Amino acid sequence: MGEWANLLRFRPAGSMEGIGELVPLELERDIPFPVRRLYTITGLPAGERRGCHAHLKTRQVIFCLRGKASVLLERGGSTEESLLEGPETGLLLEPMVWHEVTCLEEGCVLLVLASLPYDETDYVRDRAAFLALERGAEPLEADRIPFNTLKPVFEKHREEYERAALEVLRSGSYVLGMQGELFEREFAAFVGTSHCVSVNSGLDALRLAVQSLGIGPGDEVIVPANTYIASALAVSLNGAAAVFAEPDAWFALDPAAARRAVTERTKAILPVHLYGQACGMDELTRLAGKRGLFVIEDCAQSHGATFRGRMTGSFGNAGCFSFYPTKNCGAFGDGGAVTTNDGSVAETLRRLRHYGIGPDGSHGTAGWNSRLDEVQAALLRVRLRHLRDDLKTRDALAQRYLDGIENPAVTLPLVRRDAVHTWHLFVVRCTARDALREWLAQNGIDTKVHYPVPPHATPVYGKPGSPQGGLPLTERLADEVLSLPLFEGMTTAQSDRVIETVNAFSPPRTGSAGTREVRPRS
């Protein structure tokens, strides 16, 4: 066998009358690692298959104390099979060996000695993932820093979430019930508006807000060009035209660009509080007031963000929120809401989300089925209770990045004066963005691009590469922006590693053969 798996032979030293043979096993001499864990496998049916995994770091010795078992081994494209029978034979397995225990006899007893305590992150349970790791497709999962992970959000307040969900399940009320009403009341108070109407997604919040204001065919809505496509789809799905405008230095809708985009057909401005930072709402609301335009805020990424002491979602005729799980105030599924100070808008929204039905049961409006279910509402109430503390955690992580990243090739995000940034995303700029992203990936750090193709350059709104009127700044941002990991449960060590790796990056240079090389900074 190869160095990655070896059979160890132990000779019986004698017999004990009436009991059987004695096989002395001296751990310090016979087992080539300190034993941190042992377990037995008993009572398996004949033919049962066990194992079916590899370990990233753990070394093991497997004994068959009674009966027989075969162990199928795989590593480096090679496969071998070892037969275990009797306690005088042990199979030593090194890390990164895929193994499957097969051909078990009835009553077989296996003993496993392991070099490390149990750690689920040390297991590779999917064979395809194991083969990918062998090819060097990505660093070991235990060492990788994910872009985001949602489990810590649940674990932090597990008992509250479980109690809230169970309460709904036991109530027998699952749609448009008490939990939804309570959440709407609490979220309106959080934002600082008179009304909140919950719906089933962030897109529906935007789409129904546009519809509730009577915007439709022949109308135009000014939308920032550097945003997720949902901002524009909400306009298009109502038959109106999305008119794209360039951003300012904070990735937000530039008031000057919005002013130039206004025409006789313009009915609304749709600012997007992108990445968790509020737009300059004073100038935008002045423009809207002067030209008689509605303001529809896209707050999908800005839960808790403020501008001059006011929450996003409280400036316009409607504030539209997403509760997608990755949001700072995320549900455990889809969800959305519209906040407003206009009672008539709120009433229209309540009809639209429920088939257009009115208080008398009639259908004077063609509506939709867009309702936040009671389970999500109950879970969101828990999330909302802890949101302010969670935002402090995100801000602390962002400040570590702002203070620690010192690479002239990387531009840090700006924080608007008189604004509270909630850091849904931490987005840097780099002219060698793709090389930076590759460098981080090589060092086990996941990143994302928000967003690689702006809406105006997609087939939905035009031919790719042929923008409406030309939007060079938006297109440059699409080539330069990169979102770094920032999530609940991120450790200081992880953030420090991201900082060190970003600081070690040097933009690629062209080699003599025309190839581009990514090099660490000296």
Q: What distinguishing features does this structure have?
A:
30% helix, alpha+beta, 522 residues, single chain, seven-stranded mixed sheet, eight-stranded antiparallel sheet
Shape: elongated
Strand content: 15-25%
Largest sheet: 8 strands, antiparallel
Number of helices, counting only DSSP H or I runs of 4 residues or more: 15
- Please identify the structural class as seen in this structure: alpha+beta
Relative helix content: 25-40%
Question: What gyration radius follows from the Cα positions, in whole Å?
Answer: 30 Å
- Please report the total strand number as a whole number: 24
Give the overall average pLDDT.
89
Spans of at least 5 consecutive residues with low confidence: 464-468, 511-518
Plain-language structure description:
It is a single chain. The chain is an alpha+beta fold. It has helices at 27-30, 127-134, 151-156, 158-171, 178-191, 202-212, 229-236, 255-261, 281-291, 343-352, 374-385, 387-404, 433-442, 472-480, 492-503; strands spanning 5-9, 14-16, 20-22, 37-41, 50-55, 60-75, 78-93, 98-102, 109-114, 123-124, 195-199, 220-224, 241-245, 266-269, 294-298, 306-307, 310-311, 318-322, 336-340, 419-420, 426-429, 481-484, 505-510, 516-520. Strands 1, 4, 5, 6, 7, 8, 9 and 10 form an eight-stranded antiparallel sheet that branches. Helix 9 links the parallel strand 14 and strand 15 (294-298). Helix 4 (158-171) runs antiparallel to helix 11. The protein is elongated.
